[in-house]
């Protein structure tokens, strides 16, 4: 079964510092990978997705992620954290191309300190 | 706004009761998914419908059922509710390998 591991349930960074949220997946074939963000009391919003095109994927709000097949990783980064980035971030894998269910990691809560 | 709507936003009920959660997908999306988000289990896939037919089943309890109607809206029915069913229930619809999530229904079972 496919699985997603997010290292660190809580990450705290200073405003202006680099954000790095880690995600590793298990898959025998290159999957589709996603990062979603959830602000308090809201639904999930897609940040970015990897669908076997460019390995460096740029998303909304200045976030980007790099697909590394050799490391089975899809880490999320942002050069400079903003207070508004404080939220829960979920990495997800779609093991089969097409409209199939997502498998989510347990999430990482990002806190940004002024 | 994702275009996916869910009602109600909040639901408070008692153990043993039955509730129905409603979801309307984005215009033109044929697939609807239901997910449950709880503190201990995280985000878990429950069930998927495609154009009125059940397409995939995840960790859905037998007390739970769903259906998708001809107008493509979907309902998730939860019966014989237990305290542990308290969670946030999300609906999503998809197109082109991308899922769009509704705002969720927060269910509290007292």
Describe, in short, the structure shown.
Chain A has 114 residues and is an all-beta fold. Chain A has no helices and eleven strands. Chain A has strands at 3-7, 10-14, 19-26, 32-38, 44-50, 56-58, 64-68, 73-78, 87-94, 103-104, 108-113.
What do you see in this structure?
The complex is a heterodimer of chains A (114) and B (110). Chain A has 114 residues and is mainly beta. Chain A has no helices and eleven strands. In chain A, the strands form two sheets. In chain A, strands 2, 4, 5, 9, 10 and 11 form a six-stranded mixed sheet that branches. Chain A has a five-stranded antiparallel sheet with strand order 1-3-8-7-6, with no helix packed on it. Chain A is globular, with a radius of gyration of 13 Å. The N and C termini of chain A lie far apart (41 Å). The mean pLDDT of chain A is 92. Chain B is mostly beta strands and 110 residues long. Chain B starts with a strand and ends with a strand. The A-B interface holds A 32, 34, 36, 42-46, 49, 51, 90, 94, 97-107 and B 2, 4, 30-31, 33, 35, 42-45, 48, 50, 56, 58, 90, 92, 94-95, 97-104.
* Strand-pairing-aware structural class of chain B: mainly beta
- What is the chain-wise order of helices and strands of chain A? EEEEEEEEEEE
Portion of residues within helices of chain A = under 10%
Largest interface: A-B, 23 and 26 residues
User: Count of DSSP E strands of chain B?
Assistant: 11
